[in-house]
Write a structure and sequence with these properties.
The chain is an alpha+beta fold and 592 residues long. It contains 14 helices and 17 strands. 54% of the residues lie in helices and 18% in strands. The strands form four sheets. Strands 2-1-5-4-3 form a five-stranded antiparallel beta sheet, with helices on both faces. Strands 7-6-10-9-8 form a five-stranded antiparallel beta sheet. The protein has a five-stranded mixed beta sheet with strand order 12-14-15-17-16. A hairpin with an 8-residue loop joins strand 4 and strand 5. Helix 3 packs antiparallel against helix 4, helix 10 runs antiparallel to helix 11 and helix 11 packs parallel to helix 12. Its EC number is 2.7.13.3. It catalyses: ATP + protein L-histidine = ADP + protein N-phospho-L-histidine. It holds the Pfam family His_kinase. Keywords: Kinase, Membrane, Phosphoprotein, Transferase, Transmembrane, Transmembrane helix, Two-component regulatory system.
Length: 592
Amino acid sequence: MLCKWEGQQLRISEKLMTRYKNMNLTRKMLLVYFIFAGFFLVVTVLTFQITMEAFEERLYSNSLQELDYYVQSVRESLEGVEERSREMAINTNIQEMTSELTEIEPGTVQYSQVLTDMRWQLIYDNTEGTEINGVRYIDTYGNSVESAGCPWNIADDEMEKFLETVQESSGEAVFYGPTRDCGYLLCGRKVLKWSDASLDNLGALIFFCDVGKIIANNKEQMQAVNSALFVYTDENMIYQDIEEELPALPEGGPGPGYSILKYQSQRYFMCWLTAPDTGWTYVNFFPYSDIYGQVTSVRNITLLGFGAAFIVLLLLIRKLAGIITKPLETLAQSMQVVETGDFQSAKLIPMDADRKDEVGVLTQEFKVMLDKIDVLIYENYEKQLLLKDTKYKMLQAQINPHFLYNTLNAIHWMIRAKKNDDAGRMIVELGILLRASFDENPYTTVEQEISMLKSYIAIQRLRYEDRAEFSVRTEGEPGQYVMPRMTLQPLVENAIFYGADVMTEICYIDIAVTEEEQSILFEVKDNGPGIEKEELEKVRNFTVKPKGHGIGIKNIYERLRITYDEFDFAVDSEPGKGTVIRIRVPKQKSEG
């Protein structure tokens, strides 16, 4: 009975799997999407995210309120410094002594005595101010006296810059620092004469305040026991109450903000606030569990629960996605192999073509397409090779009858003119040319091409005698590279036809072969009559009506186009200055 039940379950399972496999791809993706989105998004996002975000906002609001209260306390301390500076600036004794100093010549005994009295007055007046470390008075001559507690490690340029700011003021308190070169907060105030309401300048009072002391005196207001406080400006750190390596400070513009981060293997809460009057940024940094320990424990348990559920869902979805995407991955793998042109290897990749859904149909069609493309490419490749070889031999065959006719005609007239020796040499050179031109290989080396060209030039020298002068130059070592056979000879023949045949003067024909870094340059230049501009455009476009057989330049261009993917072919000419043809082809060495 148990075995029968297990068999039924097995058959049901097989039917369900078959039904799922035959389901269209859209329904499969929708099924996975609704299972994943319905469970994970509803439970995790709505229950957890909304609750935690509200909690963090509340934590941030409370912490920021506490930090703002602390900033106000520090501001009150700084206002106390400003008030203290005002009281000392208008103090009756200080007013009398500073007025007297402006009326006494510096360096006298009376002047020194008044400065000494001024120092004792500063010491006396500063005993009541807890925020001020020391006070310095600087008279209008630049001489100064100070109370105890004034630092001497402030850079001179920092102090001079600050004094200039104080002197430019109209008597109000001026704050400066702290900076990298000045670790104190400086409060300066110009001493103005009030006794006669003249407001004459009587010097300046400089108050040195320890920022760390001011900040530390108010830190007890912070609620978190283990909190760390940082105060910094854009340039440097003003205050920090821990000596350990600092966590990453917040970046961005001024304004309140908060962040929950991991520091030294613990979670910390950081909130910051920038005071608008001083530009100082206050950062409160404390362990997340100090104030919200119980809530954190509940949150951790919730996170573990959601994490476990997420892992289970992830494994389930991965399994389901694998069933969907495996055939597509196999098909994609086969397509990637097809891109390399290896159709046989693509056919060997096992693909599930028995499925009845879209993937199965696509796989079957793809296999049929592979077979058809393989056959078509093979047939097309063979046809292209045959067509290319036939066309090349046809173009090469066009040259040989033309040249042979001209040469035999010249030999005929030499024999009739009793120039048998010249005719014999021409026949020998013609034999060399025919042996080379009848070679079934349509390609030759540059060295062999130049050798064949010299045979052709030897024939033409016998024909034209003093009417044509030829020169052949090579630069570098181009002879080892391969090129289409019978490329230079038609160019020289063309120069003779349009130059020497129509000129009454000597026609100079220069042939140059130059080895370049990546290519070989062929130039055939003559001093013939040249070509008019309109006619030259037709020559370049191969639309000009040819003279004679008219197969030279266009024939060479067609053979170059068949041989090379990229090459340069240029014809330049000016009336009365001759014509030059330049051909630049890439370097190719013989494989044999």
